[in-house]
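Input chain follows. Return structure tokens only.
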Amino acid sequence: MSIFYTEYPDPKITSLTRPFWDGCKHGRLLIQICDDCSRYRFYPTETCPECRSEKFTWAEVSGKGQVASWIVIHRSPDPVWQSLSPFVSGVIEIAEQPGCFVPGLILGIQPDQIRNGLKVQVEFEQTGENTFVPRWRAIPH
């Protein structure tokens, strides 16, 4: 189920990031992969941080990963975010490649139960008329 908040700011979509956002709109997590060294990378970049190649492809990944880091937000000056507190913002290491991280809110678990290595699955939340963002749902163990 998507929650629709018109108060969320829309991401700045550029020609470089458009494939990522279009994938989110269609329920697909697309990550750049270097055509030369085969390393996934996020955030989208024009050159590979590993080998400096400018050649890349957008690849769909499984949307599975594990929590690498997180922070619990208890207070926000923004009324929309404050209404959601406490909430967890995390950094997720995708299953396809150690060292490739995608940030997002972590859902489906109490903030005091988050732990390093917690398994998560991506889902997409509608935050604007045509905007969907990745969120991470804890996988029950």
